[in-house]
Amino acid sequence: MLFHFPRTGSTRSRLAVTLTASALALTACVTNEETGHPDGWEELDIATVPEIAAMVPPAIAADGTITIGTNVPYAPAEFKDSAGVIIGFDIDLARAVAQVMGLELEVADQDFSLILPSVSAGTVDFGASSFTDNEERRQSYDFVDYLYAGIQWSAQTGDPVDPDNACGLTVSVQRNTVSETDDINPKSEACVEAGMEPITKLAYDSADGAATALVLGRADAMSSDSPVADFAVARADGKIETTGDLFDAAPFGWPVPKQSSLGPALAAALQHLVETGDYERILGFWGIEHGLIETAQINGEPYRP
């Protein structure tokens, strides 16, 4: 699967941490079993804030619903439970800001490549699918930034690995993601140029395969997006842990039409969630511990009412 939005390009990583039943039987650890929300998850009852609701564009306010475009699977941001319902932290955050604005949330599952055109056409109101915000896309859209994500390595518990000193090690990745193309490949080439052993890369079609390889000891480490790493660790029954620092961080954002009044409304609602602590609670349900914002942002700049 192609990475829809790398740190410096135009694709997003397609990472899902959902093990197959056979992998579950082998590992009994890194899995969401496609069953639903994590243990401890709860649906928050978020009150409408009238002054923020007043910021909503009139057409959306009159309809009473706000529609997001998303693309599954990309656990824990967006994926389907065993009943086919789309869940994840992107969905929970979008629903929470909708509630602050006095709206019902409607979720449209789309091909990733169709979400931005749908935002432009007005068939969805904004995108909520782990879009990386960068200058290229800001030419056509404004982004309300809600989380910083980067590359994060994981290793077996008690056996840390230095991502900058991995020559000769075996590292699992999801194929065609930045973890493969921008992280492991260049590092392995640098090892060879320095006269050292290359990194042995185990590339899988999905992140669940990469995580399973790490848990089973087939790999010394895994390179993945930080939310995926956090989610895998939380589900691994203590068998794996993050190792080294997060790097190449960039913001995830909700794209809206350029100069749309929806952008400030979303930012104000998000800022409200930050201030009440509900933002941190929602991400905490999904095991997201890194990259949390302290202030809502529009196009990388702090939101100022």
Automatic annotation (TrEMBL):
The keyword Signal appears for this protein: yes
Main localization, broad class: other
One Pfam family matching this protein: SBP_bac_3
CDD domains in alphabetical order: PBP2_MidA_like (cd01004)
Similarity comment text for this entry: Belongs to the bacterial solute-binding protein 3 family.
Domain Solute-binding protein family 3/N-terminal: 65-290
UniProt keyword Signal present: yes
PANTHER family found in the cross-reference section: ARGININE-BINDING EXTRACELLULAR PROTEIN ARTP (PTHR35936:SF17), MEMBRANE-BOUND LYTIC MUREIN TRANSGLYCOSYLASE F (PTHR35936)
Compartment(s): Cell envelope
Keywords: Signal
Protein name from the UniProt record: ABC transporter substrate-binding protein
GO cellular component terms, A-Z: cell envelope
